[in-house]
């Protein structure tokens, strides 16, 4: 497959994520040094960069899990502040999948997925469960609905985590290294789910080191280094003909 | 699970007798010094038990206990109203049995425990010459408890029975108030002043109410200690550290003696209420520290995942964090409840006539002067039965488990 998967991104539309000049400090250490990021509806953006460059921090500021000190973030028209009202509104629009899955171990798979539709979107239980079952079918683990997370393999757990995030019917999905904690044979099943999400037109921001996946699915690749975006390019340009010296070094490292 | 018959047979079959012998040889008789130790221990155990047995069956005069049995259990509660306490006991046994049936099912083991317990009590009551009435009540209560256990288990086989689980907390809640009403009276029943609630009745009441009150208080203090808001954090921490640095008896004295001095004279707080307040406030500080341990064992990822799903902080706490945190500390919490139960004995020093207090007044009766041993042995047995019961129940209670 080639870039055919990629959806046509409507640049004439306004960006659904618009972050301008974000700066963040941990004490005296500046993690983000003025990052700009625009993501358009249905676009898939992959963030790459060396360890410690601030990828996780950036993606976590996009749904307010981390606060930022300078700059503005607008998600689907709502300005992100630490005001709990705004935050909860934004988190309804933005799903997130973590490296460590972070499923709730005391709840069954089905309860994990229906929790927030029931308590946040106030759906009735049968309705929420119907949605959950459809999602479980979509991620290919319908038969695990009544098990506890601890009884599932890593790949299955991560697919549950994706279904859980999707159950809020978000407009945007954030992924922070969703396959890094998985055994190699399970990486594929998770990437397949993510690929089909992209094909379905989901707007996604993904931190990953999976070059093949990025090449195939991403509309744009961003390289971060020391708290800054060094290069933004289409996958074809980025992997075959990167403009920046720093990108070349990075690619040499991960492709070696 | 194997039935007790097969267990009985395997335990006494020749091959297992051999097994016991092998086990004894390996563990008790492995070396000469070990043999010596085993013999000495056996000797000590044997002499103690014979001495105790001889005393119990030949020297002790149990009349002091049998005559005062009603006093021990319910104190000076009016005799013509005691049927109300029997009803309380019935609720006290029936509701847990029903819940157990619903949550864990009701099998032979449960029936055996129930029948065994009932028969034991009936036997003890009959032996101590209390007349027919208590025996009749006990038989009746045992039967109803067994029945409700079966009923609970049976309801779970029925299509309409499943939602019953979610109603159990409400049932307990209501039962609690019905019991309070039965004990205190009002609303059509003769009112019985709290000064007449003594003995085991008072001990149980104080313990249960203090446990029920101190639990939420402890959880709130634990959360307060972790709060982002400095005022709440400082107040919670200060409270916890202050209480943990004071002896319980001091707090009880303060509640009994100082509180009336601090309050305006027209406000009088019942002695019982003051005692419960003292115990709950004391216990809550310790519970808070236990719960805090549980809270800290919850990885940050759980908070993040929950917040990323749009759940507010109160929802995250009540649906995600607390259920997991409390589950990890259930054994420690039960341990604290057990010590709270035993701590009620201190109330006898501040003038409440609970189990220990009634024992003190019994031993000072002119006709039984000096019969401490009999009274306090029975007292110990009663305390032990309840504490051991709590400990066993908490171990048996299999919480619906994740992972
Ligand atoms: N809570 C924190 N307190 C202090 N420093 C932090 C904290 N979280 C992250 N950092 C620092 O911020 C920098 C960026 O971290 P971040 O997790 O965003 O990097 P990353 O690009 O995701 O790296 P990786 O590929 O290893 O996940 C790192 O130097 C890290 O040590
Ligand atoms: Mg990271």
Entry keywords:
A: 256 residues; alpha/beta; 9 helices; disordered N terminus; B: mainly alpha; MetI-like fold; 76% helix; 0% strand; binds adenosine-5'-triphosphate; binds magnesium ion
Overall, the morphology of chain A is globular
The CATH topology of the largest domain in chain B turns out to be: MetI-like fold
Query: Roughly how many Å is the radius of gyration of chain A?
Result: 18 Å
Mean pLDDT of chain A: 91
Overall 3D form of chain B: globular
Oligomeric organization of the protein chains: heterodimer
In the sheet with the most strands of chain A, the strands line up as: 6-7-8-3-9-10
The most extensive interface, with participating residues per chain, is: A-B, 29 and 20 residues
Q: Could you spell the SSE succession of chain B in H and E letters?
A: HHHHHHHHHHHHHHHHH
Task: Name the structural class of chain B.
Answer: mainly alpha
Q: How is this structure best described in words?
A:
- The complex is a heterodimer of chains A (256) and B (403).
- With 256 residues, chain A is an alpha/beta fold.
- Chain A is built from 9 helices and 10 strands.
- A 6-stranded mixed β-sheet of chain A has the order 6-7-8-3-9-10, sandwiched between helices.
- In chain A, helix 3 packs across helix 4, helix 4 crosses helix 5 and helix 5 runs parallel beside helix 6.
- With 403 residues, chain B is mostly helical.
- Chain B has 2 domains: 114 residues, no CATH class; 208 residues, MetI-like (MetI-like fold, Orthogonal Bundle), CATH 1.10.3720.10.
- Helices cover 76% and strands 0% of the residues of chain B.
- In chain B, helix 14 packs across helix 15.
- The longest helix of chain B has 31 residues.
- The radius of gyration of chain B is 25 Å and the shape is globular.
- The two termini of chain B are 23 Å apart.
- The mean pLDDT of chain B is 87.
- At the A-B interface, helix 2, strand 6, helix 3 and helix 5 of A face helix 14 and helix 15 of B.
- Adenosine-5'-triphosphate binds next to helix 1 of chain A.
């Amino acid at each position: 497959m080639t870039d055919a998967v990629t959806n046509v991104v409507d640049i004439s539309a306004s960006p659904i994520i618009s972050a301008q000049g974000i700066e963040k400090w941990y004490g005296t250490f500046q993690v983000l040094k003025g990052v700009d990021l625009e993501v358009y509806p249905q676009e898939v953006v992959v963030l790459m960069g060396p360890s410690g460059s601030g990828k996780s921090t950036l993606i976590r500021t996009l749904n307010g899990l981390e606060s930022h000190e300078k700059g503005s973030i607008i998600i689907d028209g709502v300005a992100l502040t630490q005001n709990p009202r705004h935050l909860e509104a934004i988190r309804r629009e933005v799903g997130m999948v973590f490296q460590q899955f972070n499923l709730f171990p005391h709840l069954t798979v089905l309860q994990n997925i229906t929790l927030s539709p029931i308590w946040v979107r106030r759906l009735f239980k049968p309705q929420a469960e119907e949605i959950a079952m459809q999602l479980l079918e979509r991620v290919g683990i319908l038969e695990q609905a009544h098990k506890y997370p601890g009884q599932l393999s890593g790949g299955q757990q991560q697919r549950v985590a994706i279904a859980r995030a999707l159950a809020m019917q978000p407009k945007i999905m954030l992924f922070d290294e969703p396959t890094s904690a998985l055994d190699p044979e399970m990486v594929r099943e998770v990437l397949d789910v993510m690929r089909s999400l992209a094909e379905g037109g989901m707007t996604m921001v993904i931190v990953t080191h999976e070059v093949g996946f990025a090449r195939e699915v991403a509309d744009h690749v961003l390289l971060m280094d020391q708290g800054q975006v060094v290069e933004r390019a289409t996958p074809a340009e980025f992997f075959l003909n990167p403009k920046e010296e720093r990108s070349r070094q990075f690619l040499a490292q991960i492709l070696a | 699970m194997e039935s007790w018959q097969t267990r009985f047979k395997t335990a006494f079959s020749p091959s297992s007798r051999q097994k016991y012998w092998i086990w004894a040889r390996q563990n008790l008789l492995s070396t000469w010094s070990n043999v010596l130790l085993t013999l000495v221990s056996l000797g000590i155990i044997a002499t103690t038990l014979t001495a105790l047995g001889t005393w119990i069956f030949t020297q002790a005069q149990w009349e002091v206990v049998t005559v005062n049995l009603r006093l021990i259990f319910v104190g000076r509660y009016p005799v013509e109203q005691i049927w109300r306490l029997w009803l309380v006991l019935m609720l006290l046994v029936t509701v847990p049995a029903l819940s157990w049936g619903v949550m864990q099912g009701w099998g032979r083991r449960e029936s055996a425990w129930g029948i065994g317990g009932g028969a034991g009590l009936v036997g003890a009551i009959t032996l101590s010459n209390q007349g027919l009435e208590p025996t009749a009540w006990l038989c009746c209560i045992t039967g109803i408890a067994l029945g409700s256990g079966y009923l609970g288990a049976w309801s779970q086989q029925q299509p309409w029975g499943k939602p019953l689980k979610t109603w159990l907390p409400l049932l307990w809640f209501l039962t609690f108030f019905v019991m309070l009403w039965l004990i205190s009276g009002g609303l059509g029943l003769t009112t019985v002043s709290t000064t007449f609630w003594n003995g085991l009745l008072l001990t149980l009441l104080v313990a249960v109410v203090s446990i029920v009150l101190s639990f939420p208080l402890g959880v709130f203090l634990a959360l307060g200690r972790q709060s982002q808001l400095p005022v709440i954090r400082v107040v919670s921490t200060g409270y916890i550290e202050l209480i943990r640095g004071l002896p319980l008896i001091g707090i009880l004295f303060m509640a009994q003696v100082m509180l009336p001095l601090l309050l305006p004279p027209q406000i009088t707080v019942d002695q019982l209420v003051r005692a419960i307040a003292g115990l709950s406030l004391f216990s809550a500080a310790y519970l808070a520290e236990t719960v805090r341990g549980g809270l800290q064992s919850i990885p940050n990822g759980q908070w993040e995942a929950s917040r990323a799903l749009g759940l507010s902080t109160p929802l995250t706490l009540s649906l995600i964090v607390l259920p997991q945190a409390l589950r990890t500390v259930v054994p420690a919490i039960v341990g604290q409840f057990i010590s709270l139960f035993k701590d009620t004995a201190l109330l006898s020093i501040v003038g409440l006539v609970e189990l220990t207090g009634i024992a003190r007044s019994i031993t000072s009766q002119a006709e039984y002067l000096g019969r401490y041993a009999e009274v306090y042995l029975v007292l110990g047995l009663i305390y032990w039965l309840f504490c051991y019961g709590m400990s066993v129940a908490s171990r048996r209670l299999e919480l619906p488990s994740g992972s």
